[in-house]
Fold these 2 entries.
Entry 1:
Amino acid sequence: MSEEQTTAEPSAREQALRTAVRDLERHVASLGWDGQVFVFALVRTAEALETTPELARELPEEAVRTAAVEPEHLTGIQQEGLPDSDTLEELLGQLAWPDSVDGAAVVVERMVVPPEAESGMPKEPAAAVEYLMNHPDRQDVRMATGVLRTGESWCALRSRSHDFDDAVAGSPDAVPGLVEALRATLA
């Protein structure tokens, strides 16, 4: 599956979001599998450098150079000290962003099975988890999803069984529920 699944040429803002989400997914991929949930604020790099010039010392030189010629370039700022929560939905429901944040992104791992696998799944939660963990068609997937206040979205998906940068798929709506949950954090 090709990362570029849309036929229209992306706008500068859409391209900046795609690049930011890909970069965040690659960053998290460099840490290995079985990781935590990562949440990022997305800010326009040029505007952030204008208001906080000392940020240039913390960013890669390439990001600073790119921001000088591409005003839509985005920087992801990893969020530390996230609120305690039992689920991703609960975590996202507790987040809100100041107006200075242009968007938000989350990187999370999930296990997926084909729909037919759920027909034989036990009802008891612990047994269901064990059933799914041991299912022969189980796939581990890392999903990186980003949204902007202006409405654009991008999702990048990497499967553990095809753990290569050139095998990462992408589209604006690959994970629609996650896209909507992230949009709600920006409202």
Entry 2:
Amino acid sequence: MKIDRGLEVTRNIKIIEWLKTEILSSVSALYDLMFKGARSTDETVQDVLANIIMVTYLLSKRLGLKYSDIDNKIKEKIRVAIREDHKVEKWYGDLTTLKEHIKARE
């Protein structure tokens, strides 16, 4: 079955727009939950954060990137932030913890 190239481009644009909207909607939901005092242990907060991460990966794929490209860029940003003594690292050590978490998954 031959798929019209124009139809494929249109579908790709449509899904990119939907993914962008989904990210904004999820970020808005996160702000709303935080404003209302939701705790990080709340299932809803975890669901929203997971959705933001998942949709970001899907958007990157639609934009022509590989999931591994995003993973590598995250690792690079962590390395740079640790080296530059970013406040979140300096105060809490979160970047080192994240680096270790990512390494353990590999």
